Amino acid sequence: MNRSVPNKAQKHVFAALQHVLAVFPFPVIGIDSDNGGEFINIELFEFCLQHRITFTRSRPSNKNDGAHVEQKNWSRVRELVGYLRYDTAVGLELLNEIWELDRFFTNYLLPQQKIIAKVRHGAKVSKTP
Questions:
Q1: Which pTM value belongs to this model?
Q2: Which residues contact 8 (CB under 8 A, 6 or more apart)?
Q3: Is 115 exposed, middle or buried (0-12, 13-18, 19+ CB in 10 A)?
Q4: Average pLDDT over residues 33-39
Q5: What pLDDT is attached to residue 58?
Q6: Chain mean position to CA 17
């Protein structure tokens, strides 16, 4: 689920997080973030304690820790809205409207499959969805 903010100030990130938690289709039991100050702060820490949400962060100097999130930058962000910078209040509002519509499309209409098993036969890998 995406949400755009005017900048990385902790108050904007926290407000976006509260919006996402309010509209999420199921209870959130964990948050995984990078090491930025917009996430690693006392306000978010106390919020997670109060709501019994497990909070984890990536390891310092390990840029691949966020790989599962970062892989969606092309398929859900760049492919949908491109590479332009939307830095006006109107652009931010439109982006959040796009994310709201995309949330329903992605979560309810796109088919999802989880791989149950992978079997390797030499160099060939067979996957069972």
A1: 0.72
A2: 36, 37, 38
A3: exposed
A4: 80
A5: 77
A6: 10
Q: Give the start-to-end residue ranges of the domains of the chain.
A: 10-128
Inter-helix orientation angle 10-23/42-50, to 10°: 20
The pLDDT assigned to 69 comes to 63
Q: Is the pLDDT of residue 70 over 90?
A: no
pLDDT of residue 24: 86
Which structure tokens are listed for 112?
């999802």
CATH 3.30.420.10 fits 10-128, yes or no: yes
SS (H, E, C) 36-85: CCCCCCHHHHHHHHHCCCEEEECCCCCHHHHHHHHCHHHHHHHHHHCCCC
Amino acid 82 reads G
